[in-house]
Amino acid sequence: MPRHSKHKSNRHINTNDGVMNDDPELPLAKRKRKNPNPVHFDSSINASTQLDMKARRARGKRGILAQLTEMPLDVLFEIFGHLNPDDLLHLTRASKALRYTLLKRSSVSIWKDARSHIEGLPECPIDLSEPLYASLLFDPYCHNCHESQTHTIIWSIYKRYCKKCILSVSFGQFEYHRYGLKIPLDIVPNFTCNAPRYEEPERYCLLTAQRYDSELHDLHGSIRAEWLEEKRAVLALRIKFAALGEGWAEQRTFERSLELDSARQRRLEAIKMKLTECGWAEEIAHLERRGQLSDHKLVKQPKDLTERIWNNIKKPLIEFMEKKKAERLEKLREIIIKRRGVVLSEVIAEYASHQQDTIRVPGLGDVASLEKFRTIIESTPLDEIVTPAHFSAAMDDFADFAKTWLDEKDAELVAMMEQVPMIGSKASREMLGLATTCFQCTNCRQVLDYPRVLVHNCASLPSFRGGSGLYFVSLDSEPWNYRQIISFHTAAYETARKILTDSGLDPDVQRFPDARRDELWFECFNCSCQEVGRKVMRWPMAVIHGLKLCPRLRPVSMQLLKPTPDEALLVQMLESASRNILSGHYRDSVKYVCDIGHGCGRTVAYSGIIDHVCDFHPGKVTEDFDESKYLNNFDEEDFHLHIDASTHLYRPLVLNLENPVEGFQAAFRYQCSAAFLSAMKAVHDAGVRHNDVRLPNLLLDDAGKVAILDFDRADLDSAEGQRKRELGRLADLLDGAYIGQHRFS
């Protein structure tokens, strides 16, 4: 049948004449695309001019390298000898003539010369041709689905597979029988991959295993054994080659990363030079400390900077620098405002130390909200250091402001009480001090009495999620109840009235001054039982217990406790044990008020007591100053609990004269040591009736002697290894004073 194609056939190419390899896995040359933008003639333009325009447009698309096929072979081979294997691969796809020339067996020297230009590259395996070896090294496509950008080479099987295909072309050891294979696995090439969960990372080549299985099916006897030995030898060579290939790939990746890092560094330095010329030298220094400039997407590219590139990225980089400068100045302003707030706090603390009642002194947020104080904090130049002298003039009428502030806050609390139907118009300022008047914090859900509600931490703590303002967030303090988180607790009010009524007290007149809190205890009849003991608690905890902790199925049943002398002593001992720093109920957030000197009045957390004494009262730090012993005795006369101390310090106690150890175990959160509990019980059994014996520090040894331990916030179980001071026998402790009782502001 005659040929009807208008294209001439390449009769001068003999595809069977010494072609080295025609493996289909070597990608064929793509067909040349047609011009998507053909030239259309315009009748209004001269024809010769249009032809010239067409010629000029097509000039860059002419095959200039087509003349290579007309060169002598020795010249052509000399040129090819200076190329790399990836360059030769590109030439094989340029034209059929070049493909024929480069894939002939006589051209193997060209591929070897090209491979020699790459340092450290392993020799080509004997069962792999040079072009296929070059394709394996430099063609980043999957040999199964032909997906591009596949960089993982499986050296033992001479393949590249993407993550999607690598599991479908291989199998694990436990999948061996799924494919009906009967060959030993020690002849199948294997490799390790990052397999997903529930898949075996050790994989075997499925195609090779199936081919080997079909070949082995018809072999028997000695021929079968020789065939197996041959395949094992081939596998050994492949394993050796895979080790060399992986080492070369790792080294190449490392060198490539160094090249990219070097290019990024050159680009960074060039951009820094350009930005410096634009006046951003100071800002560059600040950004480089945090690596923000080098991490910018326009800077960290591994491309050398040119004038064209700089002109393209100049505007977004300048905008980036302006944004970062604004953020830095805003952050600097926040830091300076915080520092100036600390100075103002010291000024307020100094004023409060000369007042009889520190509770009635406004907090930092309320003071800093005044215009005259806010102007000093915000309007003073950032490079000027603010000292207490800056606030001296503003503090002249501070006493009048404190009185006005207290009147306003009391009026706010009275207004909250007026909203309660059962109180209504009866609400007055005098009712704030009643035992039944309770408020609640919607942030921490604590029940607050008066005047604790005025100094509650949450009421002046700013919110970082919005609503407080950047100024108060920087100060870490805001005006009292700025976000309206304090409200009247109606349920606590009703519970308190019932407890007082059941105890025979008048809820409309009963007050609990601080001086009487140590004397009044209440017993919950719902939680008390003969086996465990009587559940007793102070007044602040009595309301909370009846409101939240007591079983909801029973009505509140609580009355004032009238203890015997033995019960009063045991209650005192249990409270001392529960408030010991080792009981587990103390936390760094528990606040104390300093009483050193004429009344320092500063609020200090437990973790900052030693630093406070060293900084503000260095006279107490003598040569024999013992930090651990001081921490164990600091609340004798130097500090007292802040009125806003957490209510867990008032937790219920278990009162049981027959088995007092049960009460001590309930009072301590951590497990008590046997020696500790023995000392507790021995002191009680001996009839010790002295209020100054601190039982959490007693230790009874095997000889019957009692020692006082100097705990350094150690666990009770390791008490045996702590420093101790022998006190003699138990009877000698009756007149020994070690620590006083807790006092409350």
Automatic annotation (TrEMBL):
Q: What SUPFAM superfamilies does UniProt report for this protein, alphabetically?
A: F-box domain, Protein kinase-like (PK-like)
Identify the stretch(es) annotated as Disordered: 1-46
- Stated name of the protein: F-box domain-containing protein
Boundaries of every F-box domain copy: 65-114
**PROSITE patterns (UniProt xref):** FBOX
Q: Where is the composition biased (Basic residues)?
A: 1-11
**Organism, scientific name:** Hypsizygus marmoreus
User: In terms of domain of life, where is this protein from?
Assistant: Eukaryota
